[in-house]
Amino acid sequence: MNVVFFNEYIQTSPRFMTDFTPWTLFVDTGIISVLLLLGKLMRVKIRFIQKLFIPPSLLAGFMGLALGPHGFGLIPLSTQTGTYAGILIAFIFGALPLTSQKAAKGDGANIGSMWAYSQAGMLLQWAFGGLLGLLVLNQIWPLNPAFGITMPSGYCGGHGTAAAIGQAFSQFGYDEILTLAMTAATFGIVAAVIIGLVIIKWGTKKGHTSFLPNYDDLPHELQTGLLPGDKRESMGESSCSSISIDPLTFNLIIVAVIALGGYCISKAVSHFMPGFELPVFSCAFVVGI
Hints:
Shape: globular
Strand content: under 5%
Largest sheet: none
Order of helices and strands: HHHHHHHHHHHH
Helix content: 55-70%
């Protein structure tokens, strides 16, 4: 109830009310870009952050949360920033098939075992989270029955999955699920980075790693994320002449069309099957294939 009240307050308070226009998107993009640059600067300069391998995007997110409308209100982010994740993840999943390569001969067994391992872990997380929310947590606190689903959406999923789950439940009046799922996704990233690094350090000391013999011997460019001039590589090849259309714009158009196709499929399914919704990013992945 407190989460619902807080969301209603944020949406109705004059301090945070904003008519969303293209200029609002422009300002949000600029502020997010500044936060990302600050996060990158922190990764380059602060040794503690380098040791934990905290990505600049995570640092930018924490700064945005602390300084934005849900924190101290020092930066004028709009109340629509939570929607961007669900849109951008559709672009990511739509572009994945375009960069995938065919498996080499003999890799089928390794791919199959890895797929089975990941699917088993994902299904167990969804089952455990759902049952924990329904049978245990819901009996202790008056929580939403769907609360357990927000946990695996942030662990085996991520912010994109959390956005899809939150948007699906918001159609049934459960607006707080989006906030809970995003919180789980953020905590999942932090836990994965910190606990994962502890496991990696332990593995290198025990000699269980092949790519990295000693964690302390990591190259400086991997710690800071900045490549020296002699190690920089080309990002790609131009597929069309810039005299007709900019190559980067052309590639963005392809991905945008794929993402739009995923959105149309998701909405078509919801139209013909009320109460059933396919996440846009999943549909975009299918269109991309």
